[in-house]
Amino acid sequence: YKQLDFESEYPAQVLFSVSKKFSKLAVERNRIKRQIRELYRHNKQKTYDLLEQKGLRIALLIMYTGSEKFSFKDLSQKYDLLIKRFLENIK
Fold first, then answer.
1. pLDDT tens column, 17-46
2. CA 88 to each of CA 16, 31, 51, 58, 67: distance values in angstroms, whole numbers, following the listed order
3. How far apart are CA 21 and CA 82, in angstroms?
4. How many Cα atoms sit within 13 Å of 30 on the Cβ side?
């Protein structure tokens, strides 16, 4: 993530990326990005709340670099761990 100074009603700008090196088929990459966007959407309120408390505006890049194909449940657990570490890092 990178802290930025920009005017917006939202405290975060987010980019999702899946490496072509590890997922050769566009169908697989798009599926993974769709799942990660859905996970972000479900967890974005607690992230926004913390950022607004701190008065921060950030640009966030979420990059999937694994070659394994996870189920949505497994991906959700990994995403929760990622967000937990990120929020601890900001505190």
1. 999 998 889 999 999 999 999 999 998 898
2. 21, 29, 12, 15, 27
3. 22
4. 3
Residues whose CB falls within 8 Å of the CB of residue 23, separated by 6 or more in sequence, listed in order: 29, 32, 64, 67
Cα(14)–Cα(32) distance, integer angstroms: 15
Residue pair 40/87 in contact (Cβ under 8 Å)? The answer is no
- DSSP state, 5? -
Q: Are 9 and 52 in contact (CB under 8 A)?
A: no
DSSP string, 19-83: -TTT--SHHHHHHHHHHHHHHHHHHHHHHHHHHHHHT--EEEEEEE---S---HHHHHHHHHHHH
